[in-house]
Amino acid sequence: MAAPSTASPSPPARANTYSPSLSRLPKSHPLTNPPQVLTGSSDRTIRLYNPLKAPPSALATDSLTTKPTPTSPAPGLIQTYSAHGYEVLDLAVSADNARFASVGGDRQVFLWDVATGRTLRRWAGHGGRVNAVAFGGPAQEVVVSGSFDATVRVWDAKSAATKPVQVFEDARDSVSSVAVVGWEIVAGSVDGKVRLYDVRMGVVYTDVVGYPVTSVCVTADGAAVLVSTLDSTVRLMDRANGQLLQAYRAHENKEYRVRSCLGLNDAVVVSGSEDGYLCAWDLLEGKVVEKMRAHEGKVASAVAWNGKGREWASAGGDGTVCIWGMP
After folding, report:
1. pTM given for the model
2. DSSP 254
């Protein structure tokens, strides 16, 4: 098993994406109990952190983090994963937390072993940067990727095949986000549409939102899709018929890819913002329940919720990841 790597002594790069899903690592990993956070950055690295070893908010900066100095590593760093040639744009963690997938500007899709830090698969075929990735299938035996080349590709994670098993070419612009529920793939695109691919039936359903889509997230029951768009709006849409169920506004999102997610058993909606704020809404009523400043006022680009707890995290243009707790 590879020993945990040390952090780079250089200043932190922009945190593009991260996942708080690694709440439990395989027993073979040196740290098995504390929650983990996986981050991807413009410095081309992926890093695994133990947030419990980061400084408490009383000692941290305004963004609840402490930046590394040239002589000290980032607090809580467990392991660094390096293989990407360009910035890392998205991460997905398997349900058993043993593997994760990563994509980025090098047009490749990587499948990793969390404990050893080895790359298990490396798939190439996209014609542009890869923006999004997700696991799919009953045993999460496939990896789904969405790219600037306007395609969604499905890769077999169990075999040694290097070619995608399926390619969907319906989008007319960059595919910015993908999510998988059962045998269906949900893909959001800059062409202003959300497409639902029923893999078993071989059909695609298209919902026209009208604005470039930056994020899609499916509710736990699979009944609705949370959609972020470049009109500073997050929409909750019925997955079966595309009906608008609720709209959430209080943040700024007109230029950059900003993610949104669901938390507290789908009771709240959380989104980043281009002005550095984080916003939370009541899912049913659409009312703002919290709005807080973070990331030194720079773009708060990504948010994700720890499904097993009351903690969530945000990543921003200041190169930091913040961990937040609900009362």
Report:
1. 0.85
2. S
Question: pLDDT value at position 35?
Answer: 72
Residues of 180-197 as b/e, b for ≥16 C-beta within 10 angstroms?
bbeebbbbbbbbbbbbbb
Torsion over CA of 238, 167, 230 and 242, rounded to 10 degrees? -20
Name the residue type at position 45: T
Q: Which two tokens stand for residue 185?
A: 């793939």
Helix (H, G, I), strand (E, B) or coil at 81: strand
Phi/psi for 76 (5° steps) reads: 80, 5
Instruction: Give strand ranges (E) for 51-107.
Output: 77-82, 88-93, 99-104
Query: Kind of pairing, strands 184-189 and 175-181?
Result: antiparallel
Three-state DSSP class for residue 119: strand
**Predicted confidence (pLDDT) per residue in 29-81, tens digit:** 333 345 789 999 999 999 999 888 776 653 333 333 444 444 456 778 999 99
pLDDT-derived band at 323, boundaries 50, 70, 90: confident
Distance, in Å, from the CA atom of 264 to the CA atom of 312, rounded to the nearest integer, reads: 10
Cα–Cα dist 186/197, whole Å: 6
Joined together, the tokens standing for residue 224 give 């609705």
* Widest Cα–Cα separation across the chain: 56
* Dihedral angle of Cα 240, 243, 247, 252, to the nearest 10 degrees: 80
Say how far apart CA 265 and CA 278 lie, in whole Å. Answer: 19
User: How far is residue 38 from each of residues 17, 69, 315, measured CA to CA in Å?
Assistant: 9, 21, 11
CA 279 → CA 110, 231, 298, 311, distances in Å? 32, 15, 14, 15
Residues 244-261 pLDDT 10s: 999 999 999 999 999 999
Mean pLDDT for 290-318 is 88
Measure the CA–CA gap between 164 and 168, rounded to whole angstroms: 10
Local structure of 53: helix, strand or coil: helix
114's CB contacts (< 8 A; 6+ apart) are 22, 25, 26, 29, 48, 97, 98, 99, 100
